[in-house]
Amino acid sequence: MNNQIQKFCDSSMSTIEGWFGRAFGKELNPMYYLGALTVYLFYIVLVSGIYVFVLYESSIFGAWSSLEYMSNELRWSAGIMRSLHRYASDAAIITIFAHMFREFMRDRFRGVRWYSWFTGIPVLWMTALLGISGYWLVWDTMAQYIAIASSEMMDWLPIFTEPMARNFLTSEDMNDRFFTLIAFIHVIGIPIFLVFGVWIHLFRISRSTINPPRGLAIGTLLALVVLSIVYPAVSHEQANLDTIPASVNLDWFYLNIFPLADSWSMGAIWALVWGVSVFLMILPWFPIKKQPPVAVVFPEECNGCGQCEDDCPYSAIEMVKREDDSPYDEVAVVQADHCVSCGICAGSCPSSTPFRKMDPLVTGIDMPDDSIHALRNDTNTVLENLSEDTRMIVYGCAHAANLDQYNNSGTAVITLPCTGMLPASFIDYSLRRGNVDGVFITGCVDNNCHFRHGNNWLDERIDHERKPALRSRVDRNRVHIFRAETSDQKKLGGALDEFRSYLEGYKPDTVEKEETKEVENHD
Amino acid sequence: MIKATQIIGQSVFYGLFIAATGYLSASPAYQVIEPDMALVKISMAHTSKPAGKCITQTPEQLEKLPPNMRLPVVCPRERSPLYLEVELDGKMIYQESILPAGINHDSACYNYHKIKVPAGSYNLKTRMRDSILTEGFDYTAERNVELAASDILVIDFDSKHQEFIFE
């Protein structure tokens, strides 16, 4: 993707997310939980579906009338459940497409991340099939219309010798077993494949978020319950194969392809279906993403602690038994085809401390193009260039608010591929070099890290909740974290000014300040 | 602490979310067929006659064959295409030659076709030929039909009783 277009897409998405952020806050921003919301909606579909299925009668005459009974006689129980079943299914299509749109706009679907995108397309089609088969079960005039239209579509394929649509010529052609078959497909067959598809979809993602935050889950459920009460889902007239329904109130989320069957040839419809599927599936390679070289392990510096394996958001690192004469049991190995070159592993390595006297600095696992050694050199260089009375260094990432504009004689800026790449010891190091009054950490906001968890990992290292943690000797008052998206650019500027003012008035322990100059470059 | 503006904002987003979900789940209505139209479905599954003459084997010919292959009459495997015509008030609305299914065209002939017609009374004529060895039509039928708006008329063929079915 062209850089300018990519930046525009990223910034537009950031703006849209900003609108949601204002209403929901960063903790509950639904745009950060679109995948998890989809899974949650499937939970609602599952629970409501089981409820409805208990009362559903799988026969020609019972199918429609049992649903009518639920909607009319059991309106406040089964009726609401039926509506929830429909609306949660429909809402899932909204969240799925929003999820795809967001990953596309954020450019989080190319390179190594092709896998989740690619495997998501069959999940989308399985969801569509699940919805369509569900509508067959109602056996009203809309079910009749889509059953015949889908059969006609299937008949174009060289699968069945006798046209499938002949099963729906007259009411006498139908029997109760038809509903048993469709119920099996809808309740057991497709859902099994769907669960398996979701598992494959998330296979390369460690710590995937499959549950939205409680507030968002409750809000979504309440909204759907309100919709179910105000506008309950109802059936059309009972199916009658002797007549054709003049019009149907189609569910456009799932049944949008069928009207085309009335005006296009079946070949054209299949060409559209397969064309769109193939287009979406190959999209991650148009154009191929240029990715920096993947992480490299330096076995002589790796102590086999497994922190990089634990922190990698893409399951790209595994610990294997050492074959050399090192005293450590295991060594990290990078699976190049899973690695997104985020550098989080380098930030998690306990050997990545700038206090080491080694030159060049070699750590256990590092990025060839953005090494920890280069980061230490950059930090030293930018700190030396600071000349204002109040000085600070800003560490941020390349996927959030732009930082270049803040680079001046009082503020040193270092932009990393991901802030998760920053070992917490660099904060200590920067402060102890003595030419800086404060360290400002920014980058992607919570739950919206371009590399999934990098921002959280650094925050946890600073808060001593994750190894390698920031040393407790660091004056925490001189470290400020303010995460900012592209849409938060103004707020970021304000936060930097505020932190500078704070530092101007802040009087750190003078004894400690004297000490820091002496321990410069001390391991 | 949640602010009033956030409550309003969330209400707006949830409102839009359920409005879009509710609306598109059943609207806009789709017109399947014009209100004054009816539908004629022509569909059949019929095994046509062999596409060639059957040969009666002489006792001498049978003697030369292994015992399990001594069939007195041998017919070609391939079957004739089915030729079908449907006329409505003297106007041809369907005319099709249907090939038997199977790689060797040795299975039954299947077809499924829909034609929209204005509601009303019609004189319907159907003709079918199921052998390439004969001239004219092997099966014919004529009927006056009354089609109300949205009615479906199915034209099928009962192979057992060798006659057209109108349902």
Task: Determine the strand fraction of chain A and express it as a percent band.
Answer: 5-15%
Average pLDDT over all residues of chain B: 93
Uncertain ranges of chain A:
513-523
**How big is the Rg of chain A?**
29 Å
Order of helices and strands of chain A: HHHHHHHHEHHEHEEHEHEEHEHEHH
**Do you know the CATH architecture of the largest domain in chain A?**
Up-down Bundle
Number of domains as seen in the coordinates of chain B: 2
CATH homology superfamily of the largest domain in chain A: Cytochrome Bc1 Complex, Chain C
Total DSSP helices of chain B: 2
Tell me, briefly, the overall form of chain A. Answer: elongated
Q: What is the alpha-carbon Rg of chain B in Å?
A: 28 Å
Characteristic terms for this protein:
heterodimer; A: 523 residues; alpha/beta; Cytochrome Bc1 Complex, Chain C; four-stranded parallel sheet; two-stranded antiparallel ribbon; 50% helix; elongated; disordered C terminus; B: 167 residues; alpha+beta; Immunoglobulin-like; four-stranded mixed sheet; four-stranded antiparallel sheet; 16% helix
Describe this protein's structure.
- The complex is a heterodimer of chains A (523) and B (167).
- Chain A is an alpha/beta fold.
- Chain A has 2 domains: 3-285, Up-down Bundle (Cytochrome Bc1 Complex, Chain C), CATH 1.20.810.10; 296-518, no CATH class.
- Chain A contains 17 helices and 9 strands.
- In chain A, helix 5 packs antiparallel against helix 10 (266-282).
- Chain B is α+β, with helices and mostly antiparallel strands and 167 residues long.
- The mean pLDDT of chain B is 93.
- Helix content of chain B is 16%, strand content 43%.
- Chain B contains 2 helices and 11 strands; from the N terminus they run H-E-E-E-H-E-E-E-E-E-E-E-E.
- Classes of the chains: A alpha/beta (523), B alpha+beta (167).
- Chains A and B meet through helix 1, helix 4, helix 6, helix 8 and strand 1 of A and helix 1, strand 1, strand 2, strand 7 and strand 10 of B.
- Strand 1 (247-248) of chain A pairs antiparallel with strand 1 of chain B.
